[in-house]
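forwarding from the other thread:

> can someone predict this with flavin mononucleotide?

sure thing
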Amino acid sequence: MNVKLTVSYMTIQGRRSIYPKMYEQGVVSKEEISALLEVAKWAPSHKNTQPWRFAVFTENSLKALVDLQVELLLKQKGENEENLAKAEKMREKASKTAAIIAIIMKRDVQKRVPIFEEEWAVACAVQNIHIHASALNLGCYWSTGASTNSNEIRNMLNLTGEDRHMGWFFVGRFTGEKSLPTNRTDVEHFTEWR
Ligand SMILES: Cc1cc2nc3c(=O)[nH]c(=O)nc-3n(C[C@H](O)[C@H](O)[C@H](O)COP(=O)(O)O)c2cc1C
């Protein structure tokens, strides 16, 4: 059997980070986003804590989110030419994006497992979502910009204690040709057989 011809291999290999400049016009409905998120819950988590949480920003809430990010950037880094250009780029990216989903780790109340295991489980959930996106004609990528887990963003997301904001998942409509898979090293490179 040629493993590279199996459905699971091709599906995993076919996942690509698709960026806002590549998104096509058009909204993505709440039903589509829900369908995208539906697969998150099948990720593994130690003691089945299911620590993944998502906050979905679309339309007005997406605009408000970008306003906040721009405000934070200019307040924290200064209102100079370079940062104004960055702010403009953020707005342009957002204008091409149908939804931005905050990726959140909600800490187990009983703290039964280490924090990093909770974060790993959330990353597994994100990978599930990302792989599923192609089937729904959606393009996505995981972004960890400067505002990730900042105090202001944590407050806005109502995070407390050891909860963590793990970045932003951009979603847009995408039916186009994906670029070729990005370079990956071979199994021999990252595996030691003992
Ligand atoms: C945790 C994480 C954070 C990432 N943050 C960013 C980011 O801030 N900006 C960006 O352009 N891409 C980001 N990416 C996407 C990677 O650049 C991308 O996965 C990588 O180049 C491989 O491309 P592929 O996803 O198409 O295989 C991130 C990916 C992961 C898993």
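The mean pLDDT is 95. thats all i got for now
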